[in-house]
Design brief:
The chain has one domain: Rossmann fold (3-Layer(aba) Sandwich), CATH 3.40.50.850. It starts with a strand and ends with a strand. Strands 1, 2, 3, 4, 5, 6, 7, 8 and 9 form a nine-stranded mixed β-sheet that branches. 36% of the residues are buried. It is of the alpha/beta class and 194 residues long. Helix content is 22%, strand content 22%. It has five helices and nine strands, in the order E-H-H-E-E-E-E-H-E-H-E-E-H-E.
């Protein structure tokens, strides 16, 4: 059975040591993540979806996130860009992107998933319904931060009937590592650490 791969917020502001909201140790993941993406098999991978935490300088100060974190991932800035090379993904595997303005990629209504390289956008919810309808029932999630956006990505996938695997070596957290997040928040649910 093919899997969907979700790559959460691998953006310069999180991944680089000098980023606006640098996640400790995330810079060491860039090369392994690129290698891992390059090794994905079209026979086993239905699609790869890259999420982008996306904020705007004029509205961020009044957002709930601003009470907890400094301004980061301002759209179209160097800190917003993905540090991974989506071109490493085999061209036979569809690669997509999703911009989100909050921790959970599921929370905002009307978000669209768009193909990397151009093409027609698809409603986020329809995108995942279509995957399930085509027999895709497993997801792999990598990225940052384990205890925020990765955690919420996993939660939404499980709620939508996907079984989730998280490669421990390809995620980092801010306050909690992924193994603690899974133990604390996903005990007894269809989530496994790899």
């Amino acid at each position: 059975m093919k899997k969907i791969v979700i790559v959460v917020d691998t953006q310069a502001d999180f991944m680089n040591p000098d980023g606006a909201l640098a996640v400790g140790g995330a810079d060491a993941l860039v090369a392994p993540m690129n290698a891992w993406l390059g090794a994905l098999s079209p026979d086993e991978t239905a699609a790869v979806l890259f999420t982008f935490d996306t904020h705007f300088a004029d509205t961020y100060p009044s957002s709930p996130e601003a009470a907890e974190f400094p301004i980061h991932c301002i759209r179209e800035t160097a800190g917003w860009r993905n540090v991974l090379d989506a071109g490493r993904v085999d061209p036979a595997i569809p690669a997509w992107r999703l911009e989100k303005g909050v921790f959970a990629m599921w929370e905002e209504d009307g978000l669209m998933v768009e193909p990397i390289g151009g093409g027609a956008q698809v409603d986020r919810d329809a995108f995942f319904r279509d995957l399930k309808a085509s027999g895709v029932g497993d997801a792999i999630v990598i990225g940052v931060a384990a205890d925020y956006c990765v955690r919420w990505a996993i939660d939404g996938l499980v709620d939508r009937g996907f079984s989730v695997t998280v490669p421990e070596a390809l995620t980092r957290g801010i306050a909690r590592p992924i193994e603690q997040v899974l133990a604390d928040d996903f005990a007894g649910r269809a989530v496994a650490l790899a």
